[in-house]
Amino acid sequence: MKILSKLNLINLLKVAAFGCLMFAHVQKLATAQTETYPTRPIKMIVSFTAGGTTDILAREVANQLTQRLKVPVIVENRPGAAGNLGTEIVGKSAPDGYTLLVNSSGPISVNPTLFKNLAVNPLTDLDPVALLAEVPNVLIVPASSKINSVKELIDYGRANPNKVNYGSTGIGTASHMTGFMFSQQSGINATHIPYKGAEAVRDLIAGRLDYMFATLPSVAALIKGGQVRPLGISIKKRYVTLPEVPTMLESGINMAAGSWFGVFAPHGTSPENLKMLNQQIVDILMSKKTKDKLINEGAEPIAMNVQEFTKFVRTEYETWAPIVRSSGAKPE
């Protein structure tokens, strides 16, 4: 019996020792995976068409992340469904850090209220990574327009009810919501025409739209080139690169709402990977060269850690929810 007990004890000790070794091995592998991320290309999904502000910011960050992380960071444009398509693709992806989303305030802050049955809810199915920039919206008209000020546009709209239209980059986007707020405050009864991203600006240039609110980076070159005329800008003070353009507040419209853009990952992504990506992106945005470049293009980089950005996203949703409900906007 004593021999048997000794044998049992020895076997138990062997099993315990093997278990400890296996646990240590698993822990070592997990640590190694965290330390070596990333080891393969990262896909960065953009919810809008090429040429828009979301795309411009994504490519700036992706190019520099590629150099820093030593793996390709590939931008893929997946526009559609008011920005929901890109959100859905990323929200349903594996939370391994290899599929990221770059999206704007509309799809993230507005769409959870606007759409009742989202396949992916950005507030619960995505993990915020980093805020990229805050961007002013500019009220623009075609260069061929006879309108030269916000007051002239309001006077024209009031004199021609139901004959004025405005475009946006999609239902629920900041472009749409800002346009709605302007119509509400100015008393213009204008028809909203939504587009899938940057196509709206092309139709404005062609004269098929009377006006629209566009993010400054997406139209800065067009303003400089004389293809569109800026009437007002929706921030509290005049923007450094457009000092001659008055704010909407100066023009008698109580509006100072811009847009913001950020990076997100599928919910459940490793906190270590989220933190690493956040630090890399913040370092990129805060470098003098990149910061000066983006400000010159109309985007102001903002540094936030993961926790701060997560709180920011929730606050933005709570701010826009009542505005969306009062707008009466309906998905297409």
TrEMBL record:
The keyword Signal applies. It comes from the Bacteria. Residues 1-30 form the signal peptide. The keyword Coiled coil does not apply. Keywords: Receptor, Signal. Transmembrane segments: none annotated. Belongs to the UPF0065 (bug) family. PANTHER family: BLR1237 PROTEIN, TRICARBOXYLATE-BINDING PROTEIN. This is Tripartite-type tricarboxylate transporter, receptor component TctC.
